[in-house]
Amino acid sequence: MFRLVTLNLNGIRSAANKGLVAWAEQIGADCMGVQEVKCQDQHVAGCFDRLAGMQGHFHFAQKKGYAGVGLYTRSTPSAVILGFEPTEFDAEGRYVEARYDTPERRFSIISCYFPSGSSGEDRQAAKFRFLERMYPHLLRLKAEREFILVGDVNIAHHAIDLKNWKGNQKNSGFLPEERAWMTRLLDEAGLVDVFRTLNPKPDQYTWWSQRGQAWAKNVGWRIDYHLATPAIAETARREQIVLAPKLSDHAALVIDYDLTV
What we know:
By secondary structure, the chain is an alpha+beta fold. It is built from 7 helices and 15 strands. It has a single domain, classed as Endonuclease/exonuclease/phosphatase (Deoxyribonuclease I, Chain A), CATH 3.60.10. It is 24% helix and 29% strand. The strands form 3 sheets. A 7-stranded mixed beta sheet has the order 3-4-5-2-1-15-14. Helix 4 (121-144) links the parallel strand 8 (106-113) and strand 9 (146-152). The longest helix is centred in the middle third of the chain and has 24 residues, at 121-144. It starts with a strand and ends with a strand.
């Protein structure tokens, strides 16, 4: 069984202060995608370049204390790809892909952090540009290899995926255009929202606002995903949203796959 974890850390140093290292040892991941590491190489070297016996591979943002993603892998990849397009978003540290290619199979695991548009119109416009570029990228990737993309997509797809859906229809993360993009990715492009194939229940959230009593009252959003090609998605066996310890404003999403990497 292959255990794949995704977790938005909201700062790797902050998460470490809350018990990240001990938790990672306990969770037993074979691979872990992390987002919003919020640091640069000098902060990782000698501290977070390895975690629970896994080697880290990172795509840092140029801006200090901003964004950044990582993949911790137990098996050594045949290649690591940083970034998916050479212009605007590669400077923000949003994409790292580990490839495991053999004569029999071409397979990738990706950690990705989609932009948030909640801070204003400029960032929402940037988010839409990101979605416009990500869709054909994933379509091309699907044509040549199997993959699982894990990460913070910053989109709740359906009403079941957030507590107050009626009041959020004009807010970033639940806009009609964002939800339509996700529908197109799953229906036309043929990717699979793996968590929902295993768990159709309501009140399954991975992020809570730090305002008010959102965490205590479970007023959350499901915006962290495993998105997989169909053949890989069929091997998913178990899912878990890990609520404790509270390492971040996000919860870890753990899925076990019946595959070998």
